[in-house]
Amino acid sequence: MTTLTRRLLLTGGLGLLGAGAVTACAGPDSSEGTDAGSGPQDGADSQDDDAVGHVHGIVRDPSDGVVVLATHFGLFRVLEGELVSVGPTVDLMGFTLASGGRYLASGHPGAGSDLPEPVGLIESTDQGESWNVLSRGGESDFHALTAGADRIVGFDGELRVSTDGENWETLAIPAPPAALAMAPGTGEIAAATESGLLLSTDGASWETIEAPGLISRVAWADETTIVGSATDGRLFTSRDSGQSWSASEEPVGEVVALGAGLTEDGSVEALLVVDSTVLRTVDGGNTVEQLA
Question: Quick one: signal sequence residues (predicted)?
Fold first, then answer.
């Protein structure tokens, strides 16, 4: 089911842990954790909705090039400047793309859903139209989630790693991650934490990376390119796996969701949700284009 909705995103008041914190977030059918004026509680399936709730993730689907938002009221696609809801209402706290065009997510079921609470790790093979539980249903709400060709990494109060989406190993990390991202190809993991940006090749040992400021959201654009949004509103870009950085000349604002990739000409594209707006930049945040 796809439904056109008006373009209002609720994003304010998020610190470093913000949407990535491990504290409980009520499901879409509850008034707890939902800002006043965030729209009807029956979710985004109604055309009368005027909000999609908090945005927890943003990616560009490589299969069709469409920008996708994971939100408090489910999945939305950005089409011609409008947000179009896709599939059931699920509070998608964690969201990532996996190999083979699969969507992976976590969070809480919406009203009328037969998913467990919390949903654990769920998978969609039809671009979010439907979801099924892979593992940890009723156990895990992964607020930070990322995946690569050979493993999935999530944080639900513990750092967990799986090679098949069903069996998990618990590993240690120096600080709770607000966001996790995995480099395509190499599988290197980046974790944005209150102790700084951490990198790991295996999820078991971590290195602290020096950055120009405290990074709250992080994404890989390719095997060596990291994009990070800082708590002071600036956007940082590194083309050498965090060894050196460039920063935007001015703050872009408080980024609550961040995605990255490369354009056809090799420019670094960053996708941002800032101040109720979906933005795109290809020059490190110095100029931005509004997508929705």
Answer: 1-26
Question: Whole domain around residue 249: which residue ranges?
Answer: 2-290
- Give phi and psi for 87, each to the nearest 5: 70, -165
pLDDT, one tens digit per residue, over 193-235 is: 999 999 999 999 999 999 999 999 999 999 999 999 999 999 9
108-122 residue pLDDT tens: 999 889 999 999 999
Q: pTM here?
A: 0.86
Residues 6+ positions from 102 with CB-CB distance below 8 Å: 123, 124, 125
> Sheet containing 82-86: which strands, arranged edge to edge?
2-5, 82-86, 74-79, 67-71, 55-60
Here the CATH number for the domain that contains residue 134 is 2.130.10.10
Q: Please state the φ and ψ torsions of residue 19, each to the nearest 5 degrees.
A: -70, -15
Tell me how far apart the alpha carbons of residues 124 and 20 are, in angstroms, rounded to a whole number.
Answer: 21
Q: 3-state DSSP call for residue 109?
A: strand
Q: SS3 of 108, please? A: strand
Contacts of 196 (CB under 8 A, 6+ apart): 175, 208, 209, 210, 211, 214, 215
